[in-house]
Amino acid sequence: MAEEARASETAETRKMDPATARAGMALPKLRYQDIPDLSETFADSIGQWIFDGQNLRIEFTVTRLDPGGARDQPTGRRLPAARMVLTPLCAVELIRQCQQLMAALEKAAATAQQAATAKAPASSG
């Protein structure tokens, strides 16, 4: 898995920036450097996606329930936790990687379903 991540990072760093492509310049060779102290932001839902023609803005949100609300109909709020702004090239890469992840999850689910079906006892008529 780590090798796949490194390969993905290497492939990502070799992508041509549109400005670089127009200028006919050579691509820089970039290496990934982790920042261990980089903070993480928790989100439990995704808010708006807005593309303004230049950038894609994705809002990540968190749900907060109001205290002391009725048990039969709780109320709450959805608050922004982070906003990510992506270039069109980065947005396309994000969507491509999400599609690959979705295909892998669907394959794993189908395999698990087949295994569960094979283990289920045959019903007698």
The value of Rg in angstroms is 22 Å
Q: How many beta-strand elements?
A: 3
N-to-C span = 46 Å
| Form type | flat
Counting DSSP H or I runs of 4 or more residues, the number of helices is 3
Strand order in space, largest sheet: 1-2-3
Sequence of secondary-structure elements: HHEEEH
Low-confidence stretches: 1-14
State the helicity in percent bands: 40-55%
* Averaged pLDDT: 84
Look at the helices and sheets and give the structural class: alpha+beta
Biggest β-sheet strands, sense, barrel: 3 strands, antiparallel
Query: What is the strand content?
Result: 15-25%
Characteristic terms for this protein:
125 residues, 3-stranded antiparallel sheet, 40% helix, flat, disordered N terminus
Describe, in plain words, how this protein is organized in 3D:
With 125 residues, the protein is α+β, with helices and mostly antiparallel strands. 40% of the residues lie in helices and 22% in strands. The chain is built from three helices and three strands, in the order ααβββα. 0% of the residues are buried. The model is unreliable at 1-14 (pLDDT under 50).
Gist of the model:
The protein is of the alpha+beta class and 125 residues long. The protein is 40% helix and 22% strand.
Write the layout of secondary structure elements.
Layout: H1 2-13, H2 18-23, E1 45-51, E2 56-65, E3 76-86, H3 88-119
Antiparallel strand pairs: 1-2, 2-3
